[in-house]
Specification:
The chain is built from eleven helices and 14 strands. By secondary structure, the chain is α/β, with parallel strands linked by helices. The strands form three sheets. An eight-stranded mixed sheet has the order 6-7-8-3-9-10-12-11, sandwiched between helices. The longest helix has 18 residues. The protein is globular and about 65 Å long. About 40% of the residues are buried.
């Protein structure tokens, strides 16, 4: 694996496997994921709900509830240490300080009974040892940085006094408080209207360029990734099924699932023939670990060898695909 544009890897994840023990049985949520993130790179992680995107990143930061969750195996190497095997105290010193995270729903992520000022200042006092006054001054700077007007007056307000877009800006301010090296954004614009979505995306892009941090942007929307990321990984049923530079993925998708995702996007260049298509069927429940290719029940290209789960095969520099069928050539592919 080579991060986009040959950047030096800042984090390297290998063979990550995460399961959940439920009354219905074991859910095989993440099934041997490998990826790297380069310094200053933006990596898009896409796929349908339930494909393992969020669980992968929560596992890396040891944020999955245990029990019922369990990280079965893997490594997440960050500055010479394995994040998956740090103690609770050690991983807490990484979260917020070196790796920040923006969660999907700011209303449930922010504490409703604490003021915004107190919540944003907490990581500053915890990780940077700031005094209460210094932290308050820094919070005002952060709120202004993310575009919240009258920031000083907002310190004593509570989350319910902010709009959805403003709450998400507060979450970004909190995630950036300690100038992290990596920002993980877990579908941060899903609950917002289109105009606010665009504002949040542009804000993160601007802050990324100013601060020079790396970004992992988790989304189900390939349209957002097109203008945000340098490289994309596509997940399905807890596996990475395709990985490529963003322009290569859009111009030369090689996995049937990626093709389906792209064909479901509205595009102005398709003309009258550009009807949107759906992907038939539903994602697997993952109460059993797939033996063959997990996409077989929904795939129009399925053939005999698909009973064997394909590895990620390199088909071009930096472009890997987990499919036995070459959709472009219309013939079988060999590992």
């Amino acid at each position: 694996m080579i991060p986009g544009n040959g950047r030096k890897p800042i984090i390297k994840v290998e063979n990550l496997q995460t399961r959940f023990h439920t009354p219905e049985g074991i859910v095989y949520a993440v099934n041997g994921v490998d990826f790297e993130l380069g310094e200053g790179e933006t990596l898009g992680v896409v796929g349908e709900s339930g494909c393992g995107k969020s669980v992968t990143m929560l596992s890396v930061l040891q944020l999955i509830p245990r029990p019922p969750g369990e990280i079965v195996s893997g490594r997440a190497e960050f500055h010479g240490q394995d994040l998956l095997h740090l103690s609770n105290e050690e991983i807490r010193s990484v979260r917020g300080a070196q790796i920040g995270m923006i969660f999907q729903d700011p209303m449930t992520s922010l504490n409703p009974v604490l003021t915004i000022g107190k919540q944003v200042s907490e990581p500053l006092m915890l990780h940077l040892g700031m005094t209460k006054k210094d932290a308050a001054d820094r919070v005002i700077e952060l709120l202004e940085l993310v575009g919240i007007p009258e920031a000083e007056k907002r310190l004593t307000q509570y989350p319910h006094q902010f709009s959805g877009g403003m709450r998400q800006r507060v979450m970004i301010a909190m995630a950036l408080a300690c100038n992290p090296q990596i920002l993980i954004a877990d579908e941060p614009t899903t609950a917002l209207d289109v105009t606010i979505q665009a504002q949040i995306i542009e804000l993160v892009k601007r802050l990324r360029d100013e601060i020079g941090m790396s970004v992992i942007w988790i989304t189900h929307d390939l349209g957002v990734v097109a203008g945000m990321a340098q490289r994309v990984i596509v997940m399905y049923a807890g596996y990475i099924i395709e990985e490529a530079p963003v322009k290569e993925l859009y111009s030369n998708p090689t996995h049937p699932y990626t093709l389906g995702l792209l064909n479901s996007l509205p595009r102005l260049d398709r003309g009258e023939q550009g009807r949107l298509t759906d992907i038939p069927g539903l994602p697997p429940l993952l109460l059993e670990k797939p033996v063959g290719c997990p996409f077989v029940p929904r795939c129009v290209y399925a053939h005999d060898r698909c009973s064997e789960n394909p590895p990620l095969m390199e088909i071009a520099p930096g472009h890997r695909s987990a499919c036995w069928w070459d959709v472009k050539e219309g013939k079988a592919r060999h590992a």
